[in-house]
Amino acid sequence: MDARLEAIRDTVLARNPGEAEFHQAVVEVFESLGPVHDRHPEFLEAAILERLCEPERQIIFRVPWTDDSGRVRINRGFRVEFNFALGPYKGGLRFHPSVYLGIVKFLGFEQIFKNALTGMPIGGGKGGADFDPRGRSDAEVMRFCQSFMTELYRHIGEYTDVPAGDIGVGGREIGYLFGQYKRITNRYESGVLTGKGISWGGSLVRPEATGFGTVIFTEQMLRTRGTSFDGRRVVVSGSGNVAINAIAKAQALGATVVACSDSSGYVVDEAGIDVALLREVKEVQRARLKDYAERRAGVAYVDGGSVWDVDASVALPCATQNELDSGAAARLVRGGLVAVGEGANMPCTRAAVSVFQDAGVLFGPGKAANAGGVATSALEMQQNASRDSWTFEHTEARLTDIMVGIHHRCAATAEEYGEPGNYVLGANIGGFVKVADAMLAQGLI
Ligand code: NDP
Ligand code: 2IT
Question: CATH code for 209-369?
Answer without folding.
Answer: 3.40.50.720
